[in-house]
User: Which sequence fits this backbone?
C-alpha cells in the first residue's frame, strides 16, 4: 500500500467513526442541542504519534461533507505520491491543513463580527443570565463544557466582567456564571481525554472547556479580560492612555486583541507604555554584517519603526522616528524602500506589499516628530547641575585604572559597533548577547544599560523632565521621603562612593524624584540598592530613567506594598525548578523555601548577595534579556549546589550553603581596585574554590538558554491570578481575625460577609471608572481600607441584610446609618465599620435564644435623628461628631422575657453602666420637636407591613402620648422658677406641619392621643432626653417583641449572595457621598 493510500484510509476511517458511531465529543450534543451551531459532520486529520486532531472541513449535511472529501482527493491525495518519506508527507499535510484552518478562521471571523448574529447572541446572553443591562458582551464561542465526566455542548459567552456558559440538552439546563476577579487559574491544558482544552479554577472548582474551533484566540481573549479585571479592580488602574480599555461599557474583541499585540510589541522592543502597535508589514531587511536579506516583520507605532526577524532572536532593530531623516523608494519593481537615519546609516526593506503607503506614513510621522527637543544631542544631554557617573568622581573608573583585559573588551565592542551600528538604531543579534555575557567594559556600561532598557528613548523624549521633578519634590515631606532618608546610608555602605555627601545627595534626589513621579509606588525597599548601582555607572538623570524602566516596564509590580511582581516571578521560578531540576524537587517537595531565599535575588537582581563587581555583570544580562536572565542564573545556582542541597537536613543548612557559594563568586576581569571589590574572602577557608561570575553566566546561558521570553511572559500571566488570589485569601483571614474581636459574628459568618462586602465593592467598579471607591483610592492606606463602599453600595448591601423586611424607606434608613458610621466624612466605609454597625444593629438578633437588645431599635432611631438634624440644621458635616461608640456603650444591656420591663431595675442598672464609663461617654443631646416627629415617623415606617402593624401603631401612639405628658408635667413643675417663653420657637411651624402630615398617615387612635398633647405644648419649645425615650419604649411589650425576633443570619447571607448581582441600581444613578 502506497503512502497516499495510507493517508486516504486513515482520514476515511475517522469519517466513518464520526458518522457511524457518534463517539466524538460534542456530536450527540450538536444534534440534540438547539442552541449549538457546530456542524455534525467533520473531516479530521491525525498525525502519527500524536493525540492532536486537526479539523480540515465541516458540514451540516452528509452531501456537504462528501463534497469536501472529493476536494481533498483532487487537491491533496494526488500530490502525496511525489514524496519519498513519511516525514515529508506529514510535513506537507500539516502545512496544507494549517492553511485550510487559517482560511476557515478568516471566514468564521467575518461571520462572528456580523452585527445581526452578534445582536441575536447578545439577546440570548441577556435572557439566559439576567445580568445588568450595562454588561458588555465581548464575544461568544461554541464549545463543550465538562460537568464531571459528561460533556455539555453549548455556548461560551465572554463579557467585560463575567465568563458565562449555557447549555440546554434533553431538558437539562446547565448555566455557569463566573466573574473574572474570582479566577484562580486560567491555562491551556491537554490530556488523554481532552487533547486541547481551557482550564478555569474558581471557588475551588475546576472547569474545562474544549471543542473550541479557535482555542488560541479564545484563550487570548479570556486572558486579556482576566488581566483587565485584575488591573482595574485590584490595582485600581484607570487606563487613561489606552482608549480601547478606558470604558468598561465599550470593551470589544478587536480592542482586546489589539491591546494584546501592543503589549507583546512593547515588551519585546522595550518601548514606553504610550506606544501602540499600529501596522505590521512582512518584508525583507538587508543585513550588512551578514550580507543577505533576512525575512521578518516591520512593526510601526506612533513614534517607532521596529523590525524583528522571523525567529525573533536572529536580529532586531529599533528606529525612533526622531532619528529618521529621509525615506527613499529606489526600486518600485522590488517594492522596496530605504529609511535613512542620522549618522549616515540606511536600512533597506524590500518585498513590502504596501510599501507606498508605509513610506508615506513614516514620512508623515517623522514630520510630526521633527522638533528641536528630538535632536540627536537630546539622547546624551544631562543637566550640568547634576553629577556624572559616581565612579568618575572617585577616580575608580576604568578611564583612570584600565587593564589589558578591559582594553580588549573595549576593542571587541568597538568592532561590534562598526559592524552593527551604535546608538538607538543598532542591530541586536546573538553576537550582542555573547559580548554581554563575556563582559561589558566599565566605560560603556552606562551607555549600554540605557540602550538595552529603552531608557535612552524616555530621556530623549522628555527633556528637562527630571530637573522639574527634582525642583517640585525638593523639600516635600511624605511617608516615602521619610523612608528614603532612613535607607540612604544603608545603600552600599561599604562603597566609598556612598560614604560621602556627594553620592548620598544624588541618591536622595533620584529616589525622591521617582517617588514624586509615581506616588502609586512611591518608595520601596531594595530600590535604594538598585539605584546606588545605577548611579555608579550612569549620570544622575540617566540613573533616574533607568529606574523608571526597571520599575514600570522590566519588573512590573515589583516595588509596591505587596510586591506582587516578585511573587509572580518566584512562582515562575518554582515552575522552572520542577521542569529542569527534578532531582531537587524529589528531595524538597515543598519549594516555598526557594521562594523565601530567592526573594532578594529578584528584588535586587543579585546585588544584595553577590559582590558588587560580580553583580554588575548580572545587571548587564538583565538589561538585555530581562527577567529571563535572572531566572537562568537562579537555576544555575541551584544546579551547581544541587548535591549539597540534597544532602542538607534543614533550611538553615541550605541557606548557609548558598551564602558560601555567593561569597565564593568573584570577577577576575574587574578593573576596580581592591578597596572597591566587596567579596568577603577573609572568612572563607584558604582551600575554598572561587568561581568566576563570567564563567557562571556563560554556563547558565548554555544550559538554560532554551528558556524563551515568550514562555516566561505566558507563565507570568498564568501565575499572577493564583498569586493575587492567594494574597487576597490570606488578607481576608487576617482581616476577619482582627474584626472578630469587635463583633458578635462567627468566623464563618464574617467570611461570608467579607465576600459580600468585597463583591459589592467590585460591583461599584464593574461598569464605571468613576465610582467613589476608585476616585478615593489611596494605595498608602492599610489593606483593610482598600475595599470601601460608598452610600449606594452600602445601601444595597444593608437592604439585603437588615432585619426589618417590611420597612418601606430602606434607602432613607441606610442614609441615616451610613452618615452615622462614616466618622471621617469621606463618603466611604470599610469592612470593619460595616461589621461593627451591622453587629450593633442586628447582633443580638442573630442568637437562637430569645435574648432582647433594644440598642438595635434605638441606635437606628438615633441615626435617624442625627441624620435628620444633619439635613435640617447643618450642612457642613459637623454632626458627624455623633459617632457610634457612645450609643453602643449606653445600650449594651440585655433584658430577658416578653412582659413589661421593671423600669426601676433597668434604670438602676443603666445608671451603674454610666458611672462605670462616664469618662469615655459623651453626653447625648436632647431631641426637639422636629426631631421627635421624625423619630415617630421612623418607627411607623419600620412597622409598616408587619402582621402586627395595627398593634405596633398603637404602641407608638402610647409612647408619644406618654412622652408628651411627661414633658408637660415637667414644664408645669418648673413654671414657678422659670419665666414663660415670650416668643414662639422658629421651628414650631415645621413641627406643626410635620405633625399634621404624620397624623394623616397613621391610624386614628394614634392621631387622637398625640394631637391633643401637641396642642397643649404648641406654644412652647419642648424636647426629650434619651432616658425618657428609652423608658417609654421599654414600657410597650409590642415594640419589645418586635425587636426581639431572632434573625436567621445564615439564611439572610445565602439569600443576599443570590440576590446581590440582581439588586443593582441603574447605571446612571447618582451617587450620594
Assistant:
Amino acid at each position: 500500500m502506497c503512502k497516499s493510500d495510507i493517508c486516504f484510509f486513515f482520514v476515511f476511517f475517522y469519517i466513518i467513526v464520526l458518522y457511524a458511531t457518534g463517539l466524538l465529543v460534542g456530536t450527540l450534543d450538536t444534534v440534540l442541542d438547539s442552541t449549538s451551531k457546530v456542524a455534525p459532520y467533520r473531516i479530521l486529520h491525525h498525525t502519527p504519534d500524536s493525540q492532536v486532531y486537526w479539523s480540515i472541513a465541516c458540514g451540516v449535511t452528509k452531501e456537504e461533507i462528501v463534497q469536501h472529501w472529493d476536494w481533498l482527493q483532487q487537491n491533496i491525495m494526488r500530490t502525496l505520491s511525489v514524496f519519498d518519506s513519511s516525514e515529508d508527507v506529514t510535513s506537507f499535510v500539516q502545512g496544507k491543513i494549517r492553511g485550510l484552518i487559517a482560511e476557515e478562521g478568516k471566514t468564521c471571523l467575518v461571520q462572528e463580527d456580523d452585527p445581526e448574529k452578534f445582536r441575536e447572541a447578545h439577546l440570548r446572553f441577556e435572557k439566559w443570565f439576567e445580568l445588568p443591562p450595562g454588561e458588555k458582551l465581548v464575544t461568544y464561542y461554541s464549545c463543550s463544557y465538562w460537568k464531571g465526566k459528561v460533556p455539555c455542548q453549548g455556548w461560551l459567552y465572554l463579557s467585560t466582567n463575567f465568563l458565562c456558559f449555557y447549555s440546554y440538552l434533553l431538558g437539562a439546563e446547565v448555566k455557569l456564571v463566573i466573574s473574572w476577579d474570582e479566577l484562580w487559574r486560567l491555562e491551556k491544558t491537554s490530556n488523554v481525554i481532552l487533547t486541547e482544552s481551557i482550564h478555569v479554577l474558581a471557588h475551588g472548582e475546576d472547569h474545562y472547556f474544549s471543542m473550541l474551533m479557535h482555542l488560541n484566540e479564545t484563550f487570548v481573549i479570556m486572558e486579556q479580560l482576566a488581566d483587565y479585571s485584575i488591573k482595574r479592580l485590584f490595582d485600581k488602574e484607570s487606563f487613561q492612555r489606552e482608549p480601547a480599555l478606558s470604558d468598561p461599557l465599550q470593551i470589544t474583541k478587536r480592542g482586546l486583541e489589539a491591546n494584546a499585540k501592543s503589549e507583546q510589541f512593547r515588551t519585546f522592543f522595550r518601548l514606553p507604555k504610550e506606544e501602540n502597535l499600529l501596522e505590521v508589514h512582512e518584508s525583507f531587511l538587508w543585513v550588512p554584517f551578514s550580507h543577505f536579506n533576512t525575512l521578518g516583520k516591520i512593526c510601526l507605532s506612533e513614534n517607532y519603526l521596529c523590525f524583528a526577524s522571523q525567529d525573533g532572536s536572529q536580529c532586531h532593530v529599533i528606529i525612533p522616528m526622531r532619528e529618521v531623516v529621509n525615506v527613499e523608494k529606489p526600486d518600485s519593481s522590488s517594492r522596496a524602500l530605504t529609511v535613512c537615519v542620522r549618522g549616515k546609516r540606511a536600512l533597506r526593506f524590500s518585498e513590502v506589499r504596501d510599501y507606498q503607503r508605509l513610506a508615506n506614513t513614516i514620512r508623515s510621522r517623522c514630520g510630526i516628530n521633527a522638533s528641536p527637543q528630538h535632536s540627536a544631542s537630546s539622547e546624551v544631554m544631562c543637566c550640568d547641575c547634576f553629577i556624572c557617573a559616581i565612579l568618575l568622581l572617585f577616580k575608580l573608573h576604568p578611564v583612570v585604572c584600565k587593564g589589558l583585559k578591559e582594553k580588549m573588551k573595549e576593542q571587541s565592542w568597538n568592532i561590534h559597533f562598526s559592524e552593527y551600528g551604535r546608538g538607538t538604531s543598532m542591530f541586536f543579534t546573538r553576537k550582542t548577547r555573547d559580548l554581554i555575557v563575556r563582559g561589558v567594559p566599565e566605560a560603556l556600561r552606562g551607555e549600554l544599560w540605557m540602550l538595552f532598557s529603552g531608557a535612552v528613548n524616555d530621556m530623549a523624549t522628555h527633556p528637562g523632565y527630571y530637573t522639574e521633578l527634582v525642583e517640585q519634590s525638593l523639600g516635600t515631606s511624605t511617608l516615602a521621603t521619610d523612608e528614603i532618608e532612613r535607607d540612604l546610608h544603608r545603600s552600599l555602605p561599604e562603597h566609598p562612593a556612598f560614604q560621602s555627601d556627594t553620592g548620598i545627595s544624588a541618591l536622595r534626589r533620584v529616589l525622591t524624584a521617582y517617588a514624586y513621579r509615581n506616588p502609586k509606588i512611591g518608595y520601596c525597599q531594595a530600590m535604594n540598592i538598585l539605584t546606588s548601582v545605577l548611579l555608579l555607572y550612569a549620570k544622575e538623570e540617566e540613573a533616574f530613567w533607568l529606574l523608571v524602566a526597571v520599575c514600570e516596564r522590566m519588573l512590573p509590580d515589583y516595588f509596591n506594598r505587596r510586591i506582587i511582581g516578585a511573587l509572580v516571578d518566584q512562582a515562575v521560578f518554582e515552575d522552572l525548578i520542577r521542569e529542569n531540576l527534578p532531582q531537587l524537587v524529589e528531595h524538597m517537595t515543598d519549594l516555598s523555601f526557594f521562594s523565601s531565599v530567592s526573594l532578594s535575588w529578584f528584588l535586587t537582581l543579585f546585588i544584595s548577595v553577590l559582590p558588587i563587581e560580580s553583580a554588575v555583570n548580572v545587571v548587564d544580562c538583565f538589561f538585555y534579556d530581562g527577567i529571563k536572565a535572572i531566572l537562568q542564573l537562579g537555576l544555575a545556582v541551584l544546579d551547581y549546589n544541587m548535591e549539597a542541597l540534597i544532602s542538607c537536613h534543614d533550611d538553615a543548612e541550605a541557606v548557609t550553603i548558598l551564602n558560601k557559594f555567593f561569597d565564593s563568586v568573584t570577577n577576575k576581569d574587574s578593573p576596580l581596585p581592591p578597596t572597591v571589590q566587596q567579596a568577603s574572602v577573609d572568612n572563607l577557608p584558604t582551600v575554598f574554590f572561587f568561581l568566576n561570575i563570567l564563567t557562571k553566566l556563560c554556563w547558565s546561558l548554555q544550559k538554560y538558554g532554551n528558556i524563551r521570553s515568550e514562555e516566561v511572559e505566558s507563565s507570568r500571566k498564568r501565575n499572577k491570578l493564583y498569586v493575587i488570589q492567594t494574597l487576597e485569601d490570606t488578607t481576608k483571614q487576617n482581616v476577619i481575625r482582627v474584626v472578630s474581636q469587635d463583633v458578635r459574628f462567627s468566623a464563618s459568618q464574617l467570611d461570608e460577609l467579607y465576600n459580600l462586602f468585597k463583591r459589592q465593592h467590585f460591583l461599584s467598579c464593574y461598569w464605571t471608572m468613576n465610582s467613589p471607591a476608585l476616585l478615593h483610592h489611596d494605595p498608602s492606606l492599610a489593606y483593610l481600607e482598600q475595599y470601601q463602599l460608598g452610600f449606594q453600595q452600602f445601601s444595597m448591601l444593608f437592604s439585603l441584610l437588615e432585619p426589618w423586611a417590611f420597612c418601606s424607606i430602606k434607602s432613607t434608613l441606610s442614609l441615616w446609618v451610613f452618615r452615622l458610621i462614616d466618622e471621617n466624612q469621606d463618603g466611604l466605609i470599610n469592612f470593619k465599620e460595616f461589621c461593627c454597625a451591622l453587629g450593633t444593629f442586628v447582633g443580638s438578633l442573630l442568637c437562637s435564644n430569645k435574648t432582647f437588645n433594644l440598642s438595635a431599635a434605638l441606635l437606628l432611631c438615633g441615626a435617624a435623628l442625627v441624620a435628620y438634624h444633619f439635613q435640617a440644621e447643618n450642612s457642613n458635616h459637623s454632626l458627624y461628631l455623633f459617632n457610634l461608640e457612645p450609643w453602643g456603650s449606653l445600650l449594651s444591656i440585655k433584658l430577658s422575657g416578653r412582659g413589661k420591663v421593671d423600669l426601676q431595675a433597668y434604670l438602676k442598672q443603666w445608671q451603674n453602666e454610666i458611672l462605670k464609663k462616664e469618662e469615655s461617654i459623651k453626653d447625648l443631646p436632647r431631641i426637639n420637636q422636629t426631631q421627635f416627629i421624625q423619630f415617630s415617623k421612623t418607627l411607623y415606617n419600620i412597622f409598616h407591613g408587619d402582621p402586627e402593624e395595627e398593634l405596633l401603631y398603637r404602641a407608638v401612639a402610647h409612647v408619644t402620648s406618654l412622652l408628651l405628658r411627661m414633658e408637660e408635667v415637667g414644664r408645669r413643675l418648673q413654671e414657678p422658677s422659670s419665666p414663660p417663653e415670650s416668643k414662639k420657637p422658629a421651628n414650631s411651624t415645621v413641627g406643626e406641619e410635620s405633625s399634621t402630615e404624620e397624623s394623616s398617615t397613621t391610624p386614628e387612635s394614634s392621631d387622637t392621643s398625640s394631637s391633643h398633647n401637641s396642642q397643649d405644648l404648641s406654644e412652647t419649645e419642648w424636647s426629650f432626653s434619651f432616658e425618657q425615650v428609652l423608658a417609654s419604649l421599654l414600657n410597650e411589650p409590642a415594640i419589645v417583641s418586635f425587636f426581639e425576633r431572632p434573625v436567621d443570619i445564615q439564611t439572610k447571607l445565602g439569600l443576599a449572595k443570590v440576590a446581590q448581582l440582581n439588586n443593582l441600581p441603574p447605571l446612571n444613578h447618582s451617587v450620594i457621598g
Observations:
- The first helix runs from residue 3 to 21.
